[in-house]
Amino acid sequence: MIPGVSSRRRFSDLSEQEILALAISSEEDDARIYRMYAERLREDYAGSAAVFDGMAEEEDVHRRKLIELHQRRFGDVIPLIRREHVSGFYARRPVWLVENLGLDRMRDEAEAMEREAEAFYRKAAARTQDAETRKLLGDLAAAEAGHSDKADKLAEAHLDDETRDQEDRTAKRQFLLTWVQPGLAGLMDGSVSTLAPIFATAFATQDTHTTFLVGLAASVGAGISMGFTEAASDDGELSGRGSPVKRGFASGIMTTIGGLGHALPYLIPDFWTATVIAIVVVFVELWAIVWIQNKFMETPFLRATFQVVLGGALVFAAGALIGAG
Q1: Closest by alpha carbon to 194, among 292, 286, 307, 273?
Q2: How far apart are the C-alpha atoms of 246 and 255, rounded to whole Å?
Q3: What are the tens digits of pLDDT across the range 230-257?
Q4: Would you state the pLDDT for residue 153?
Q5: Model pTM?
Q6: Domain spans of the chain?
Q7: Cα 9 from chain centroid (whole Å)
Q8: By percentage, how much of the chain surpasses pLDDT 70?
Q9: What is the CATH code for 9-159?
Q10: Residue from 54, 58, 56, 62 nearest 24 by CA
């Protein structure tokens, strides 16, 4: 390979045999992805898993038709060519990303896959001269375009309204437990726990650079601590809270953001300008926490306001008094 020159081939340079081989490998990959979705969902979303099983079977039918056509035209040896070998060809997500998608995201990804496959078959059909090959590729393009209807029929067979509602509730609960709850805990900890050291340093030194360094250290340190604590506290197997890695990232990142929010204004050289802006940021942070608690955790608004704003005000006052003393 020449440095700086792509090793991927252009679609327009592929022979008809290579186009068929590419279609076969693509159908194999899509069937695997649908089956991976199904396995990932089977325990909690049996109805949706059955839908993806049905879609994988459809891809198997397409693959068999393509292989039969290849055998008739070119023999049994199918060239090894995949999506990643072709420049500009649509790609699928890596396995480790696919496995971590939520239910709604899997449904969206499946729709996008069918649209991309349809576009490929239409482009491939336009490139072929053989009538039988062109007809099959055109039929497959139409089949991919109709997969949304097929998916709807499969959903009707496996997902009645009650089952879909139950799956949607389960998905929402999983989202809350895996992302919102740890993220909210991190945001609260980062926003509130760093108030005292940041504002104590600010009023004690009136040095914006020192205050920023203390705030940065407190925020990053709290983020790392909260992230590892959340990840190590529960593997999610019995509690159903989901991946400890996801929860750790959600908690750690939001903790860091919560602290940095009122540390960053101290990049401004003027002490009182930076302090006023930092106080405004704190106010916004605390109300954001109240809003998240009310919207996602269904905490009564007045109760959330009392808990968060009063707690934040007390910690801020403690830091300011300690720094002023």
Answers
A1: 286
A2: 14
A3: 888 766 654 556 778 888 888 899 999 9
A4: 54
A5: 0.55
A6: 9-159, 166-324
A7: 31
A8: 82
A9: 1.20.1260.10
A10: 62
